């Protein structure tokens, strides 16, 4: 029944009646998982340096591995990076050895992708349970009704930032999050991701009918939809979100969504102040958060435009290389 009402809300939204209704808001929210995920095939660079937060949050000199204007072929950049930037945390085996990590997610949700970027970077294998955004039957067992939910050896963790903090503490029990160098900068930018960057994404990926369709093509292909839901959701969802995204633009005072996306990308590049990563020679949690939410849109038109029209491409490529391949394992 829920799925019927959810899809009905989309249809109402297309008719222009429901974008302000509670039902449509709920549906809109469900489809707002919709930053899109691209599979990353990157060479995995390993970190040979020792762990420790001073290192983790430390600063470094710039690597010679930068491409020019993001145009350096990735393979070249990746091999240079492997030599010049020891940006990958060592596998967690010595520090944190969970037996069973399960992520309840929407494949395209930016918050879920933040958590995945963290797990991938720290080489923590995880299973994924794709939640049906309409019925949510996969998370009926939980009182928490959003994703991501991470279950680590039976312990439920919710809210992406809280999950990441908890995991970080498990990996680095010797370090207090309150006493890290550059803690304020890291916190500031992680807050910027949650309070600003994620709000710029939806108006961009649903900006035009063709971009909305491109996005929903991804969502319905990778998400957990029944065949009927998939067919209906692709077209009605794209149409609904095209209109809803205009409302979101207003709500977040965005005049031109592409300009806002480019500005956000340049704001982030400025924050780097010439460093390889915000964390210096290695990504910190803010680097991973920005990368995580951008990864789903990177190969959509909005992400391609962003890389073409801003200076974020080099940093993105470094992050892609540092985070490496997905640690997702078959459930
Ligand atoms: N603050 C939370 C936000 C999580 C969130 O809003 N998730 C969305 C998906 S992107 C969600 O589950 N919305 C509820 C729904 O789909 O019904 C976090 O960082 O994890």
TrEMBL record:
Gene Ontology MF terms in the entry: prostaglandin-E synthase activity
Pfam family, one: GST_C
Cross-referenced CDD domains: GST_C_mPGES2, GST_N_mPGES2
Cellular component, GO, one term: mitochondrion
Example of a GO biological process term: prostaglandin biosynthetic process
Family assignment from sequence similarity: Belongs to the GST superfamily.
Name recorded for this polypeptide: Prostaglandin E synthase 2
Organism field: Nyssa sinensis
């Amino acid at each position: 029944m829920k799925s019927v009402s959810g899809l009905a809300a989309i249809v109402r939204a297309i008719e222009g009646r429901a974008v302000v209704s509670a039902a449509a808001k709920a549906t809109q929210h469900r489809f707002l998982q919709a930053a899109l995920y691209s599979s990353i095939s990157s060479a995995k660079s390993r970190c040979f340096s020792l762990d420790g937060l001073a290192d983790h949050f430390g600063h470094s000199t710039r690597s010679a591995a930068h491409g020019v204007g993001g145009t350096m072929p990735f393979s070249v950049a990746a091999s240079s990076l492997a030599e010049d930037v020891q940006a990958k945390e060592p596998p967690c085996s010595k520090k944190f050895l969970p037996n069973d990590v399960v992520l309840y997610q929407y494949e395209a949700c930016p918050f879920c992708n933040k958590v995945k970027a963290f797990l991938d970077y720290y080489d923590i294998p995880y299973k994924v349970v794709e939640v049906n955004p309409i019925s949510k039957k996969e998370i009926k067992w939980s009182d928490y009704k959003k994703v991501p939910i991470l279950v680590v050896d039976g312990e439920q963790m919710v809210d992406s930032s809280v999950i990441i903090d908890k995991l970080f503490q498990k990996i680095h029990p010797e370090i207090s999050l309150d006493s890290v160098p550059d803690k304020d900068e890291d916190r500031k930018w992680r807050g910027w991701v949650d309070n600003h960057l994620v709000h710029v994404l939806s108006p961009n990926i649903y900006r035009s009918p063709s971009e909305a369709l491109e996005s929903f093509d991804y969502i319905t292909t990778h998400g957990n939809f029944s065949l009927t839901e998939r067919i209906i959701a692709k077209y009605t969802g794209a149409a609904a979100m095209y209109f809803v995204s205009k409302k979101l633009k207003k709500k977040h005072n965005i005049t031109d969504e592409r300009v806002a996306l480019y500005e956000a990308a340049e704001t982030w590049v400025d924050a780097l102040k010439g460093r390889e990563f915000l964390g210096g020679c290695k990504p910190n949690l803010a680097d991973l958060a920005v990368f995580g939410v951008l990864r789903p849109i990177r190969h959509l038109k909005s992400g391609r435009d962003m890389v073409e029209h801003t200076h974020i491409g080099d940093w993105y490529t470094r992050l892609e290389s540092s985070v490496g391949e997905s640690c997702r394992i078959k459930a």
